[in-house]
Amino acid sequence: MNNKKEDKKVDVTNRQGSGSFYSTVVKDHFFHPKNFMEDETGYIADGIGMVGSPACGDVMRVWIKVDPKSERITDLKWKTFGCASAIAATSMMSVMVTENEGMTLDEARKLRPQDITFRLDGLPQRKIHCSVLGDKALRSAINDYLRKVGQTDRIEIEHGRIIDKVLKITDHDIEEAVLEGADTLEKVQDKTKVGTGDPSCIPEVEQLIRFYKEKYYGAE
């Protein structure tokens, strides 16, 4: 993140009815991000997680400190190259994880994008996917911590069920596409190519698209 107040990609003004409305909470966390990692020099983390790629857009890094006795997350720092929604969502996540003496590792692993979005008083639909990166990076950091303390049996690897058996495209890939704004089969195919290798899976793909749209955006 070049500058936490720099926002050339999005308009954070209040534009109700345009589909781009940002709540007061979102704008506060964007302009005044909580627990942002200003300088990681000298910061000793118990676990570090990263998701995303500089080549394709948002990148998220999360550092956590853990009380080994209670397994509560006592501190969480983060840094991202991303839009206002990604910054606000991660800032809110950092507050949720560390407030009230901190979540336990198991509690933190159950944190989901919709929990963060709820605390932000909502996000524009086209920006819901931005709330996904933070919790994924958090789970990655937790896995890193468990690896360091030798509890590899507790590491949870995120993967998906293969839907397109030719192109090896998973339900997780489809979920990601929907979160990125693909709300039709054609748009999901444009992002993932699902069904072009194995056309027989298309009915299941359409069912998954409906499921994820309802899960993240509510019933139409």
| CATH fold category name of the largest domain | Sufe protein. Chain: A
The CATH top-level class label of the largest domain = Alpha Beta
Q: Average pLDDT across residues?
A: 84
Number of strands: 5
Helix coverage percent of residues?
A: 25-40%
Low-confidence segments = 1-19
Rg of Cα set = 18 Å
Strand content: 5-15%
- Distance from N terminus to C terminus (CA atoms, Å) equals 36 Å
User: What number of structural domains do the residues give?
Assistant: 2
CATH architecture of the largest domain: Alpha-Beta Complex
- The global form is globular
Lateral strand order in the biggest sheet:
1-2-3
Largest sheet: 3 strands, antiparallel
Structural class: alpha+beta
Give the SSE layout.
Layout: H1 24-31, E1 47-52, E2 59-66, E3 73-81, H2 84-98, H3 105-109, H4 113-119, H5 132-148, E4 162-164, E5 169-170, H6 171-179, H7 185-192, H8 202-217
Antiparallel strand pairs: 1-2, 2-3, 4-5
Task: Describe the protein in words.
The chain folds into 2 domains: 24-154, Sufe protein. Chain: A (Alpha-Beta Complex); 162-217, Arc Repressor Mutant, subunit A (Orthogonal Bundle). Strand 1 (47-52) and strand 2 (59-66) form a beta hairpin. The protein has 220 residues and is of the alpha+beta class. The relative contact order is 0.12. The model is unreliable at 1-19 (pLDDT under 50). It starts with 23 loop residues before the first helix and ends with a helix. The chain is built from 8 helices and 5 strands. The protein is 39% helix and 13% strand. A 3-stranded antiparallel beta sheet has the order 1-2-3. Strands 4-5 form a two-stranded antiparallel sheet. The protein has helices spanning 24-31, 84-98, 105-109, 113-119, 132-148, 171-179, 185-192, 202-217; strands spanning 47-52, 59-66, 73-81, 162-164, 169-170.
